[in-house]
Amino acid sequence: RAMVGLLGSLVQLDKAGLLDCILYLSGVSGSTWCMASLYQEPNWSTKLETVKDQIIKRLTGPGVIWGDSCKTLKEYYDGKDKFSLTDVWAVLVITEYVKEIDKCKLSDQRDQHNEDPFPIYTVTDKQYKQSKDEKDSWFEISPHEAGYSLTGAFVGTSSFGSQFDNGSNKNPEPEMDMLYLQALCGSALADGHENIKFIWQKIKDFFKHLFPIMQSEMFDEMRKGKGYQVLMDLVDMNLAVLNGKEPSAFEQSIRTTLNELGGGKKLICTTEKLNLADKQAAKLYMKQYTEDACNNLSSWFSSWPFIWIKICKCMAQWVWGRKYDFLHNMDDKTMPSTLLKSERRDYEDAGLLLNSPYFSMLREERNIDLIISLDFSEGNPFMTVRGAADMCKKLKIPFPEVNIPSEDVEKPKDFYVFKGKNAPTVIHIPLFNVVNCGDNIEAWRKNYRTVQGSYSAEMITDLMDVAGKNISNNREKLKEQIQAVIEQKLHK
What we know:
The protein has 492 residues and is an alpha+beta fold.
């Protein structure tokens, strides 16, 4: 939704002659998928119609073949110390939507986009988000640097992910590619419980497709088959528990197979009984059971099949976006002490905290005058702008007050302007509104819900048209606000 909506909006901004007024293009979640596609083409804003057609052709074309997915996942696993579910998400999910494996590097784009807005991809630091630290949560990645937008700590983008000690790069790792970056930014397709079920099912499908490939490459047919069976039973057992179904048949199969592999030794011991009625207890039970089964199974495999085991362990531990902390062991009293002490940090979709990248734009050095907020959220279209205003108030960051008429919450208009003293002007544009959808807002939201497969050609065209109307219908209003900001700057 955000990917296609942003594309439709940019096309109309270009037709209105306003695209070259934009200095920065910052994205969160699905909008970063659109950005990644656009910035494949040097100076894309000078030939947007052609680039748009190329993107739509790819999105409506065939997907990535399983063999290429397997190869990419193996490269991810072999090429880094910190393998996580983000790597799995990139290969199994992102490729289904963007229909390609983009191996390009973000830092390679530094000198290719002199005519385009400067791209900024945003995520959040999971540890800070969980600690309710709103200032230090915001993390941005651009062709030049990666780091904390408000804290002010950055590292060169090509070195993000490498292991540092007191500012020295002691274990360089290859720069992440654009497919992985899209997974890092866009991994919040559903709430936690539904997300877990969704990924386990994806892993199950992947294992089924992968096994025939493995059969031709691996040794020892008996052990290979038994190991595969344990993993498939483990996936099915997790899915059964998540769906509230009795998993005893899968558990018994796992125990029997592992015991056979172990020469009759009892390899899994559990002292607690699984209680499906207590969801939290069942979750903890399955976390421990999955880790135990994987640890036992790993002694029988090496190389490629071990990736399967690692994937299951990452699922049990729910590890996403894990990277080395580039500030580890530095002596800088201006930085938060937790950043200086930790060895690793986990990064995730910023939409889980605030589904709009305001805080990359509110970085003090950028001195932003006008923000055009294109809101592609599934639910309340004012949650992001209100959330940003509340957070800015707590953090003492200049931001206008946001007052929304109560009747607009259910029936949003297509154009809002918020202004404040010594604060940037914020133009807020909800994707679905009474102007472009009439009385059918809920129908549009339902048709373009977050959790669904890739769009048909017709769905892409319709969504681009709806998003584009938010710009074309407000062309003069946008020009007025841009002119007002210019005049304000001239009179300072």
